[in-house]
Amino acid sequence: MPAVLQIQVNKNLYIRDPEETELGRQIVSESIKLMDKLGFEKFTFKKLAADISSTEASVYRYFESKHQLLLYLVSWYWLWIDYRIQYRISNIKETTEKLRLVIRTLTESTSDDPASTHVDEETLHRIVVAESAKAYVTPDMKGPKTAELFKSFESLCDRIVGIILEARPKFAHPRALASSMIVLAHRESFYARYIPGVTDLKLKKENYKEVMDYLELVLFATLGIK
Asked: Under DSSP, is residue 195 helix (H, G, I), strand (E, B) or coil?
């Protein structure tokens, strides 16, 4: 993995690309921390501007609303996971090993990636779990821009679907399985870390082996892989 990672989010999810400037990167970095601390409902551009010693107007030059900012953050997150899967399986030929790497990548998405210098993925993961549904609630779910909202998540699903179909070309529900595995990986890792009373899986320090073993059991059993 390169020393510094840059994720290119769809241009419809910002006014000015925050990756282009130090202020833009600071807005992204500090918004993750503040949104995690306050929750999406209490998060405001006024509070964000105060934290970065700037003005609300400067934040609005990058994002038209906090809803658009949340969409940007969630999309960044899915693109980051997609990138890591693509990178890890690029030289792997055995399909079962690719599936294991998918599971590992989805599970490890709860940890910070040092390759992205201004994004704390561990914190962003909590935002995705708690707030991502709000990002996709729009007045017109059939509007012309709706496809852009889901594009990064769909791309991640497509990546996993391709590997599932390598393993079982005639499997009837590859997209349902792919999206279910993404949700399951994030949910069980979150439970194991923060609400252990609702799961049998345990984290030992930063070791996610129990979570990965469980996901492999579910995925391989569903696909009929021994």
From this structure: coil
Q: What pLDDT does residue 114 have?
A: 80
Give the bridge partners for 204, in sequence order. Answer: 207
Measuring CA to CA, how many Å separate 220 from each of 72, 138, 164, 198? 33, 36, 10, 23
What average pLDDT does range 209-222 have in this prediction? Answer: 95
Q: How far is CA 34 from CA 59, 121, 170, in A?
A: 14, 14, 46
Please check whether residue 119 is in contact with residue 32, taking contact to mean a CB–CB distance below 8 angstroms: yes
> Would you tell me the crossing angle of helices 95-108 and 146-167 to the nearest 10 degrees?
140
The CA distances from residue 99 to 23, 40, 45, 115, in Å, are 39, 34, 41, 23
Report the distance separating Cα 68 and Cα 122, nearest Å.
Answer: 21
Domain 11-223: give its CATH code. Answer: 1.10.357.10
Where in the chain are the domains? 11-223
What are the pLDDT digits (tens) for 126-184? 898 888 777 766 555 555 456 666 889 999 999 999 999 999 999 999 999 999 999 89
